[in-house]
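Record now logged underneath.
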Amino acid sequence: MMKKLLTLFVASVMASGAVAQLDIAALASAMDNPGRPAADKERDSNRKAPEVLSFLGLEAGMTAMDLIAIGGWYTEVLSYAVGDSGKVIMQNNSGRFVDNNMEIINDRLSRRSNIEHHLGPVSDVAAGSVDFALTALNFHDVHNPNPAAAQGFLGQIATALKPGGILGVIDHAGNHGADNVTLHRIAFEDAVSAIVNSGQFALVGSADILDNPADDHSVGPFDPSLGRNTDRFVLKFVKL
């Protein structure tokens, strides 16, 4: 019910102003190029990135940051979307997950000249240099074990963003009060509260693009029964 009420509210907010439109067909065509890894393309139908990024307001020429990018599936998609006049910061923290994906990362960097790999905290990104930041399927891992650390993370993102910059959040939906640490999920209302209560961002949009009613949130994202197609929410915030 909370998700439905918030969705209705933010829909009315967005209707009162212009919403940037990405060329969905052009991005889909770019993603289908023969040089893009087949393993990446296998995820396209579940992730619906052109529709998601259009909703979030990404535009060509922007400086975008993929937060906790790991192997960088979304980094490469963002690089097509912002085009040659734009730039993508692939942000990662040092650790084994990044080490295990360095071959994939280096391949992306060799093929996409508008990607910069930033191996270090968001706090090291130049203040006010980013138009658009995206955390895809990982905010739960920051917030659930340590809400205070998540607030610090949000503060760093806000500092890196330009005034009015966009923060997009995609995550595996969980049930409020469930053991979402173990399930690698986060409840819609918990994510919204954490981000809005940081005092750095306003919620301006919520989309059901990645809804999956067949997922009851009782198993983790990698459970074979889901086929990697979890129920996911898509949230759009702007920096205050």
Observations:
- Strands lie at 63-67, 87-92, 115-119, 130-136, 161-174, 186-187, 201-207, 232-239.
- The chain has one domain: 2-239.
- Confidence is low (pLDDT under 50) at residues 7-19.
